[in-house]
Amino acid sequence: MKTDISIIIPVYNEEGNISKLFQKIQAIFEKIDKTWEIIFINDGSSDKSEAEILNLSKNNPQIKLISFVRNFGQTAAWSAGFDYAQGKILITMDADLQNDPEDIPMMLEIMEKEKADIVNGWRKNRQDPFLRSIVSKMANKIINWMMESNIKDSGCSLRIIKKSAIQDLKLYGEMHRLLPFLLAGYGAKTIQIPVKHHPRIIGKSKYGFSRTFKVLLDMITIKFLISYQTKPIYMFGQVGFGFLVLSVLTALLVIVRRIFFNGAWISPLFFVMSNFFTVGILCVLMGLLAEIQVRSWFEGTGKKPYLIKKMS
Q: Are 32 and 91 in contact (CB under 8 A)?
Protein backbone atom coordinates (compact mmCIF):
# COMPACT_ATOMS: atom_id res chain seq x y z
CA MET A 1 0.00 0.00 0.00
CA LYS A 2 1.31 3.42 -0.95
CA THR A 3 1.86 5.98 1.77
CA ASP A 4 0.21 9.36 1.21
CA ILE A 5 1.63 11.33 4.14
CA SER A 6 4.86 11.05 6.10
CA ILE A 7 5.18 12.84 9.45
CA ILE A 8 8.81 13.55 10.33
CA ILE A 9 9.61 14.18 13.99
CA PRO A 10 13.18 14.68 15.29
CA VAL A 11 13.59 13.49 18.89
CA TYR A 12 16.27 14.50 21.35
CA ASN A 13 15.57 13.66 25.00
CA GLU A 14 11.79 13.93 24.74
CA GLU A 15 10.85 11.08 27.10
CA GLY A 16 7.27 11.55 28.27
CA ASN A 17 6.21 13.63 25.26
CA ILE A 18 6.36 11.00 22.53
CA SER A 19 3.41 8.82 23.56
CA LYS A 20 1.18 11.84 24.08
CA LEU A 21 2.15 13.29 20.73
CA PHE A 22 1.48 10.00 18.93
CA GLN A 23 -1.98 9.72 20.51
CA LYS A 24 -2.85 13.21 19.28
CA ILE A 25 -1.59 12.50 15.76
CA GLN A 26 -3.39 9.15 15.65
CA ALA A 27 -6.67 10.79 16.68
CA ILE A 28 -6.31 13.34 13.87
CA PHE A 29 -5.51 10.83 11.13
CA GLU A 30 -8.37 8.55 12.09
CA LYS A 31 -10.55 11.31 10.60
CA ILE A 32 -8.43 11.74 7.43
CA ASP A 33 -8.84 9.38 4.51
CA LYS A 34 -5.12 9.10 3.83
CA THR A 35 -2.49 6.46 4.47
CA TRP A 36 0.23 7.74 6.75
CA GLU A 37 3.42 6.98 8.61
CA ILE A 38 5.40 8.61 11.40
CA ILE A 39 9.18 8.68 11.19
CA PHE A 40 10.80 9.40 14.54
CA ILE A 41 14.47 10.31 14.22
CA ASN A 42 16.23 9.64 17.51
CA ASP A 43 19.02 12.21 17.42
CA GLY A 44 21.33 10.61 19.98
CA SER A 45 18.96 10.87 22.97
CA SER A 46 20.46 9.94 26.34
CA ASP A 47 17.11 9.31 28.06
CA LYS A 48 14.48 6.63 27.34
CA SER A 49 13.08 8.28 24.20
CA GLU A 50 14.16 5.40 21.95
CA ALA A 51 12.61 2.78 24.26
CA GLU A 52 9.36 4.77 24.31
CA ILE A 53 9.23 4.85 20.50
CA LEU A 54 10.03 1.13 20.20
CA ASN A 55 7.31 0.31 22.71
CA LEU A 56 4.77 2.31 20.69
CA SER A 57 5.84 0.69 17.41
CA LYS A 58 4.96 -2.81 18.67
CA ASN A 59 1.24 -2.14 18.23
CA ASN A 60 1.41 0.65 15.65
CA PRO A 61 2.93 -0.32 12.28
CA GLN A 62 2.74 3.30 11.11
CA ILE A 63 5.72 4.12 13.35
CA LYS A 64 9.23 3.97 11.95
CA LEU A 65 12.38 4.71 13.92
CA ILE A 66 15.73 6.02 12.71
CA SER A 67 18.37 6.21 15.45
CA PHE A 68 21.57 8.17 14.97
CA VAL A 69 24.81 6.98 16.57
CA ARG A 70 25.15 10.39 18.22
CA ASN A 71 23.57 13.82 18.24
CA PHE A 72 23.85 15.35 14.75
CA GLY A 73 21.31 18.15 15.15
CA GLN A 74 17.83 18.88 13.88
CA THR A 75 18.87 19.66 10.31
CA ALA A 76 20.47 16.22 9.93
CA ALA A 77 17.39 14.61 11.50
CA TRP A 78 15.06 16.32 9.04
CA SER A 79 17.34 15.40 6.16
CA ALA A 80 17.22 11.73 7.17
CA GLY A 81 13.44 11.92 7.45
CA PHE A 82 13.18 13.43 3.97
CA ASP A 83 15.41 10.68 2.56
CA TYR A 84 13.46 7.77 4.02
CA ALA A 85 9.90 9.14 3.87
CA GLN A 86 7.53 7.23 1.58
CA GLY A 87 4.75 9.81 1.40
CA LYS A 88 4.21 12.38 -1.33
CA ILE A 89 3.31 14.90 1.37
CA LEU A 90 5.74 15.53 4.24
CA ILE A 91 4.78 17.01 7.60
CA THR A 92 7.49 18.24 9.95
CA MET A 93 6.96 19.07 13.60
CA ASP A 94 8.72 19.07 16.96
CA ALA A 95 8.31 16.32 19.55
CA ASP A 96 7.90 18.69 22.52
CA LEU A 97 4.08 19.09 22.18
CA GLN A 98 4.40 22.80 21.44
CA ASN A 99 3.16 22.25 17.88
CA ASP A 100 -0.48 21.20 17.72
CA PRO A 101 -1.43 18.28 15.43
CA GLU A 102 -4.98 19.68 15.26
CA ASP A 103 -3.67 22.27 12.79
CA ILE A 104 -2.68 19.57 10.28
CA PRO A 105 -6.09 19.06 8.57
CA MET A 106 -6.44 22.79 7.97
CA MET A 107 -2.93 22.99 6.53
CA LEU A 108 -3.55 20.02 4.24
CA GLU A 109 -6.77 21.60 3.00
CA ILE A 110 -5.02 24.89 2.25
CA MET A 111 -2.19 23.12 0.43
CA GLU A 112 -4.66 21.35 -1.84
CA LYS A 113 -6.84 24.42 -2.37
CA GLU A 114 -3.97 26.83 -3.10
CA LYS A 115 -1.84 24.23 -4.92
CA ALA A 116 1.06 25.24 -2.70
CA ASP A 117 4.42 23.49 -2.45
CA ILE A 118 4.86 24.35 1.22
CA VAL A 119 2.46 25.50 3.94
CA ASN A 120 4.43 27.14 6.72
CA GLY A 121 3.06 27.56 10.22
CA TRP A 122 3.16 30.96 11.91
CA ARG A 123 3.18 30.95 15.72
CA LYS A 124 1.20 34.17 16.00
CA ASN A 125 0.74 33.80 19.77
CA ARG A 126 4.06 32.26 20.68
CA GLN A 127 4.29 30.58 24.08
CA ASP A 128 8.06 30.80 24.65
CA PRO A 129 10.05 32.81 27.23
CA PHE A 130 9.97 36.54 26.49
CA LEU A 131 13.68 36.99 25.74
CA ARG A 132 13.80 34.00 23.41
CA SER A 133 10.76 35.27 21.51
CA ILE A 134 12.30 38.74 21.10
CA VAL A 135 15.64 37.39 19.85
CA SER A 136 13.85 35.06 17.43
CA LYS A 137 11.69 37.89 16.04
CA MET A 138 14.74 40.12 15.56
CA ALA A 139 16.62 37.34 13.75
CA ASN A 140 13.56 36.71 11.58
CA LYS A 141 13.43 40.39 10.57
CA ILE A 142 17.13 40.38 9.66
CA ILE A 143 16.72 37.22 7.58
CA ASN A 144 13.68 38.63 5.78
CA TRP A 145 15.59 41.83 5.01
CA MET A 146 18.58 39.91 3.66
CA MET A 147 16.47 37.46 1.66
CA GLU A 148 14.02 40.13 0.44
CA SER A 149 11.09 38.03 1.60
CA ASN A 150 8.22 38.10 4.08
CA ILE A 151 8.30 34.82 6.03
CA LYS A 152 6.60 35.63 9.31
CA ASP A 153 8.02 32.73 11.33
CA SER A 154 11.01 30.90 9.88
CA GLY A 155 11.53 29.00 13.16
CA CYS A 156 8.17 27.23 13.22
CA SER A 157 8.77 23.49 12.74
CA LEU A 158 5.16 22.74 11.80
CA ARG A 159 5.22 22.65 8.02
CA ILE A 160 3.63 20.67 5.22
CA ILE A 161 5.82 20.16 2.17
CA LYS A 162 5.40 18.37 -1.12
CA LYS A 163 8.18 15.83 -1.44
CA SER A 164 8.66 16.81 -5.07
CA ALA A 165 9.71 20.28 -3.88
CA ILE A 166 12.61 19.02 -1.79
CA GLN A 167 13.71 15.82 -3.50
CA ASP A 168 16.94 17.40 -4.80
CA LEU A 169 17.52 19.61 -1.76
CA LYS A 170 20.47 19.08 0.58
CA LEU A 171 20.45 20.56 4.07
CA TYR A 172 23.48 21.45 6.19
CA GLY A 173 24.22 23.37 9.39
CA GLU A 174 21.03 24.92 10.77
CA MET A 175 19.38 25.24 7.36
CA HIS A 176 16.17 23.49 8.43
CA ARG A 177 15.08 26.82 9.91
CA LEU A 178 15.66 28.52 6.56
CA LEU A 179 13.77 25.94 4.53
CA PRO A 180 10.93 28.32 3.50
CA PHE A 181 13.47 30.85 2.18
CA LEU A 182 15.48 28.17 0.40
CA LEU A 183 12.40 26.65 -1.28
CA ALA A 184 10.99 30.08 -2.18
CA GLY A 185 14.32 30.95 -3.77
CA TYR A 186 13.95 27.91 -6.03
CA GLY A 187 10.43 28.88 -7.05
CA ALA A 188 8.28 26.91 -4.59
CA LYS A 189 4.87 28.39 -3.84
CA THR A 190 4.69 29.14 -0.12
CA ILE A 191 1.59 29.78 1.99
CA GLN A 192 1.74 30.99 5.60
CA ILE A 193 -1.04 30.44 8.11
CA PRO A 194 -1.35 31.08 11.87
CA VAL A 195 -1.08 27.90 13.97
CA LYS A 196 -1.51 27.17 17.66
CA HIS A 197 1.50 27.08 19.93
CA HIS A 198 1.67 25.65 23.44
CA PRO A 199 4.16 26.14 26.26
CA ARG A 200 6.56 23.30 26.95
CA ILE A 201 5.44 21.24 29.95
CA ILE A 202 7.76 18.22 29.96
CA GLY A 203 11.52 18.43 29.43
CA LYS A 204 13.83 21.32 28.64
CA SER A 205 14.22 23.40 25.52
CA LYS A 206 17.24 22.50 23.36
CA TYR A 207 17.48 25.93 21.77
CA GLY A 208 20.13 28.42 22.86
CA PHE A 209 20.94 31.93 21.71
CA SER A 210 24.09 30.67 19.96
CA ARG A 211 21.83 28.91 17.44
CA THR A 212 20.52 32.29 16.29
CA PHE A 213 24.00 33.30 15.10
CA LYS A 214 24.46 29.95 13.35
CA VAL A 215 21.18 30.49 11.52
CA LEU A 216 22.30 33.97 10.40
CA LEU A 217 25.53 32.52 9.02
CA ASP A 218 23.58 29.81 7.18
CA MET A 219 21.34 32.56 5.83
CA ILE A 220 24.37 34.22 4.21
CA THR A 221 25.22 30.87 2.60
CA ILE A 222 21.69 30.44 1.26
CA LYS A 223 21.62 34.01 -0.05
CA PHE A 224 24.82 33.29 -1.95
CA LEU A 225 23.53 29.96 -3.31
CA ILE A 226 20.24 31.44 -4.50
CA SER A 227 21.61 34.67 -5.97
CA TYR A 228 25.10 33.77 -7.14
CA GLN A 229 25.38 29.98 -7.47
CA THR A 230 25.71 30.13 -11.26
CA LYS A 231 27.46 33.53 -11.42
CA PRO A 232 29.83 34.00 -8.43
CA ILE A 233 31.90 36.53 -10.38
CA TYR A 234 29.03 39.00 -9.95
CA MET A 235 29.34 39.00 -6.16
CA PHE A 236 33.14 38.85 -5.94
CA GLY A 237 33.44 41.30 -8.82
CA GLN A 238 31.15 43.87 -7.17
CA VAL A 239 33.09 43.67 -3.92
CA GLY A 240 36.41 43.79 -5.81
CA PHE A 241 35.46 46.85 -7.87
CA GLY A 242 34.23 48.51 -4.68
CA PHE A 243 37.69 48.15 -3.15
CA LEU A 244 39.33 49.32 -6.39
CA VAL A 245 37.18 52.47 -6.36
CA LEU A 246 38.23 53.08 -2.75
CA SER A 247 41.87 52.66 -3.76
CA VAL A 248 41.48 55.25 -6.56
CA LEU A 249 39.80 57.71 -4.18
CA THR A 250 42.54 57.17 -1.61
CA ALA A 251 45.18 57.69 -4.32
CA LEU A 252 43.55 61.00 -5.27
CA LEU A 253 43.61 62.03 -1.62
CA VAL A 254 47.32 61.21 -1.44
CA ILE A 255 47.99 63.31 -4.57
CA VAL A 256 45.92 66.29 -3.33
CA ARG A 257 47.60 66.08 0.06
CA ARG A 258 51.04 66.07 -1.58
CA ILE A 259 50.41 68.91 -4.08
CA PHE A 260 48.36 71.33 -2.00
CA PHE A 261 49.44 70.56 1.57
CA ASN A 262 53.04 69.43 1.00
CA GLY A 263 52.31 66.02 2.48
CA ALA A 264 54.61 63.04 2.15
CA TRP A 265 54.10 60.51 -0.63
CA ILE A 266 54.84 57.62 1.69
CA SER A 267 52.29 57.85 4.51
CA PRO A 268 49.64 55.65 6.17
CA LEU A 269 47.23 56.71 3.41
CA PHE A 270 49.58 55.24 0.80
CA PHE A 271 49.47 51.85 2.53
CA VAL A 272 45.68 52.07 2.88
CA MET A 273 45.46 52.71 -0.86
CA SER A 274 47.75 49.74 -1.56
CA ASN A 275 45.67 47.46 0.64
CA PHE A 276 42.41 48.53 -1.01
CA PHE A 277 43.93 47.88 -4.45
CA THR A 278 45.32 44.46 -3.44
CA VAL A 279 42.04 43.32 -1.86
CA GLY A 280 40.12 44.49 -4.93
CA ILE A 281 42.31 42.52 -7.32
CA LEU A 282 42.14 39.43 -5.08
CA CYS A 283 38.33 39.57 -4.98
CA VAL A 284 38.12 39.72 -8.78
CA LEU A 285 40.55 36.81 -9.07
CA MET A 286 38.53 34.81 -6.51
CA GLY A 287 35.44 35.46 -8.60
CA LEU A 288 37.18 34.14 -11.71
CA LEU A 289 38.34 31.00 -9.87
CA ALA A 290 34.80 30.48 -8.53
CA GLU A 291 33.43 30.81 -12.08
CA ILE A 292 35.83 28.11 -13.29
CA GLN A 293 34.81 25.82 -10.42
CA VAL A 294 31.09 26.37 -10.97
CA ARG A 295 31.31 25.72 -14.71
CA SER A 296 33.46 22.62 -14.14
CA TRP A 297 30.94 21.33 -11.58
CA PHE A 298 27.92 21.85 -13.82
CA GLU A 299 29.65 20.25 -16.81
CA GLY A 300 31.14 17.39 -14.75
CA THR A 301 27.89 16.45 -12.98
CA GLY A 302 25.57 17.12 -15.90
CA LYS A 303 23.39 19.28 -13.62
CA LYS A 304 21.43 22.01 -15.34
CA PRO A 305 21.58 25.63 -14.12
CA TYR A 306 17.77 25.84 -14.19
CA LEU A 307 14.70 24.14 -12.69
CA ILE A 308 11.64 23.20 -14.74
CA LYS A 309 8.22 23.47 -13.12
CA LYS A 310 6.33 21.68 -15.92
CA MET A 311 6.33 21.13 -19.66
CA SER A 312 3.37 21.01 -22.01
A: no
